[in-house]
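Q: My hope is that you can spare some time for a protein that puzzles me. Underneath my words sits a plain record pairing an amino acid chain with its backbone structure tokens. Those tokens are not coordinates but codes from a learned vocabulary of shapes. Thank you; the sequence and its tokens follow:
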Amino acid sequence: MLRIAVPNKGAISGPAMAMLHEAGYRQRKESKELVLVDPTNEVEFFYLRPRDIAIYVSSGKLDIGITGRDLLLDSGADAEEILQLGFARSTFRYATKPGTATGPKDFAGMTIATSYEGIVAKHLADEGVDASVVHLDGAVETAIELGVAQIIADVVETGTSMRNAGLEIIGEPIMKSEAVVIRRTGAPADDPKVQQFLRRLQGVLVARSYVMMDYDCRVEHLERAVALTPGLESPTISPLHHEGWVAVRSMVAAKEAQRIMDDLYELGARAILTTAIHACRL
């Protein structure tokens, strides 16, 4: 069986399990379940602390895992990302009291508090900055107020919590993170079970990003209509009973669907419908 690590809690856990469910895999119903076997799909899921997943995968005990890019890089584990999943996006940045510093060039001799010591230490080394890094587990915003550090480095989504703590975000982003699928570095890239798993997740990503659009169009307007809905390769076109009309079916980007419907209507197309795509293989 393919052995897969899934976060047991946190921002990645819920969306990851939802995606796996959409991909046709069984998922746990109780948060106390630590292991779930899906015999139909020949997969075994292990629900682990998000920070531990890269370590387990790099050890070879598990084949692949779902975790955050930030957690993967911070772990220093011998693992690599093989698919971006498009959720749990965040930015990793520095913050401090106004007037303290404007960026890493001002950090010399200062102390930086973070839950991601590995990422920060590497970034400082890359920038050639001689500063101290202190590791804290969560709530790093209070580190400055309590005098533990002059700078903090943390995941930023909206920046609200930092502003509420009287801090300002400084410098360029250290990195951008999102949920990713990882495997051990050097693991066979052509493992058929892993490839099937990736195809399923890629199918979910495409299904979420596209809709199927159907409409009726006069033959004389067909070329202009097809230019609006070219599809992934080309649209399906079928003649209608009424002479001079055709039915067109094509995949279009979901975020563009309403605009395309407006343009098609102005062109004279009618019976314009969109339907969700639940699964696909490209």
The mean pLDDT is 94. The longest strand covers residues 168-177. Residues 100 and 106 are 8 Å apart (CA to CA). The chain is about 30% helix and 35% strand.
